[in-house]
């Protein structure tokens, strides 16, 4: 197959999104320590509603956007290599870090949480055999923030038959017809319909939560985002629609964010959610799904418009951002465990944890990058 000229050009906007999203995830997890509406792995006795509002702002769309970028990157990867090589790459770049991270990065997080809550008093070495006692949160075994890698690995394999179809003449024709159907100022927002429907349907069919095989209602949006990312890269007409409609999508996304902020500030979210499948419940989760897609379109379009230049910051961050994601959460938890019981004034705890988390994440990532074993595992 003749390689597309687009596949030989690095899309810097995708690099920018990936780096900025991972930095945002680090910030969100620092905010989770002070989130008044959620008990995180380690939580401060002093909570802050503004920190909670930042979590509410990013929650619907930040990880789906990262999955969208992964789907888009899949198109570029398959233009340069065979499907067999792509699958092998998923094993080495996704599954191996998932397994290694679960065995090396997750146990310290659970151990620190158990010690912080007075549920364990021994050392990490003493705790490690207990890491395999049951499934978190009742037990200890968990992949924690590495759940994203598990979903990425699963979706990248499940979507392959569909992707192969879209690479045929008939499949490309279908994608082009979809692009024609999405014309108009707000046409791309019709693609939010699957996100809304899957949330309502799967919550009813599979009410269990918390694991890869059970949490479909919350995470199926990631599968759709992955597929949409590939579609946008594979069909130039869809990419042009993103360029044309992203400002309209940003308007819808802003309205959604304002509604969620207001609901959280007045106490309706997350503790006061309406009864499942009541009118209010359907309205909130419809807004959630539609807003998530609107933010993805807005972020992708804005980055394609404004973030197309290579800079020293991007050159530094591009090869490191993946490792930043892998190591940041144990560092944030360690920073919180260090700062919260200390005599540091309450007003300075957030910046102290943020600074320690930033320095620790950068330092840990550099140690891994300079280690032969670390590079092979992560």
Characterization of this structure:
This protein is mostly helical and 378 residues long. The protein is 69% helix and 0% strand. Helix 1 (12-32) packs antiparallel against helix 2 (49-58), helix 4 packs antiparallel against helix 7 and helix 15 packs across helix 16. The longest helix is centred in the middle third of the chain and has 30 residues, at 236-265. The chain is globular and about 60 Å long.
Which terms would index this structure?
69% helix, 0% strand, 378 residues, mainly alpha
Question: What is the strand content?
Answer: under 5%
Q: Helix tally? A: 17
Distance, first to last CA: 32 Å
Which secondary-structure class do the elements indicate?
Answer: mainly alpha
Order of helices and strands: HHHHHHHHHHHHHHHHH
Radius of gyration: 21 Å
Any low-confidence stretches, pLDDT <50, length ≥5?
A: 1-5, 210-214
Please state the average pLDDT score. 90
Q: Based on CA inertia axes, which overall geometry fits?
A: globular
Number of strands: 0
Largest sheet: none
